[in-house]
Every structure is written in C-alpha cells, then in structure tokens.
What we know:
By secondary structure, this protein is of the alpha/beta class. The chain has helices at residues 12-20, 33-42, 70-76, 133-147, 171-174, 192-222; strands at residues 80-86, 104-108, 119-122, 125-128, 153-158. The chain has a three-stranded parallel β-sheet with strand order 2-1-5, sandwiched between helices.
Amino acid sequence: MGAYGNEDIYTPNMNRITEEGMIFTQALTCPVCSPSRAMIMTGLYPNKVGVDDWISSEETEGILPSKPTIAEVLKKAGYFTGLIGKWHLGKEEVYHPLNRGFDYFMGFLGGGNNPKDPVFEVEGKGKQLKGFTIDIVGQDAIRFIRENKDRPFALFFHTREPHMPYTPTPQEDMAHYINKKLRVPEVENFPIEKLQEEYREYYASISSIDRNIGYLLEELDNLGLRDNTIVI
C-alpha cells in the first residue's frame, strides 16, 4: 500500500486511515493465511490456539474452542458482531463463526473463492451470488452498518482479495495500472512482461479492496458515526 512507500499502487483510503490514525512499522505475524487470522482473532501466537499453518480443505482443525476470540469478548460486552467474507479458521461446526462469537455471518469458511460469482453461505445455506466478490462483501458490509447504526456493533470485513486468482477484477480498479510500467524485481528465467502483468493484476485486486474501504468510511461519515467508531 502507498502508506508503506509503494508509489505504484493506488490505495488512497488505506493511506487515509494511516494519516488520520496511526501506522505500525514493526509487527509479528505469519506469512500464510490461517495463522495470521488466528493471531488477529485471539491475540495469541498461532501455536497456542491450534492453528500453526494454513488450513487445507482436507483438514478439520480450527481455533481451539478453549481460546476465546475477540468477537466473543465484544459480544459479551454488548456489541452486535458480524463477519462478512472469509473465515478460514475451521469449517467444522464447532469452529463456525456463529459458534465463535459472531451474531451474523455471510461469506465462506474455506481459504479461497472465485473473484466473481462466488458461492457464499447466506443465512446458513450455500448460495451462488452474482457479481464481483469484493463488491458483494462491500455492499453487505454497508447494509450491516446501516442496520446496526443505533447500537454498538463490531464488523469484521474479511475480503478474499488479494488471494489468487487475482482476476477478473472490476475494470475501474484495473484502470489504474493499464499501460503503466511498475517496479518489479528481477526474477531469473521469468519474463519481465509476465511479471508486470502479475503485478498489475495483484495491485488491481488490492485497489478493489481499497475502493470498498472508501465506501465503508464514507458510510460512517454519512451516518454520523465517524467520531464513535474505531477503524482498524
């Protein structure tokens, strides 16, 4: 993102969060998905909560039920909790978001999904939805905020992006990178133009997240919630 010094990528809304708040330049996480999410959800090292690697579709593990999640803590404190998008912390019933502190869940339990026309769990049932996945979760997040604006709420906005495959991506997000020469590393035996293409698709995927973050920040402003909402 731009706030960390990337001059090629278009992330004005992520940058806005750092400009109006704070930015962390030193932090510990994991280079793969599930352990990082487990750390965020529990505040503990992943080996302490039973998730020390990404969870494949064949595995049945998840965050240990004995380890409380931040959603469970917030729910006990009176917040209406929602998770929209990706979970990837256990697909068994005991690990389901609705059993780990969330009042509302719309999204998918596994690690990946299609960037367009995804199959989501909606009201407890699998359903194929039409449109770009990033915009589907973005619009549902706006609906969640509107419907819960008059009570304490905690929204976890978990995009599938920028998970591979990066494309198809909304044209308005790819437009920032068409015919743009990006700074990319030199990789032996890998064509430079192919790497440029990969970066354009990757950056466009990130910009699609940023655009939807902008919609969410705008919604907080429109509803008069800016001064009473913490955005992380």
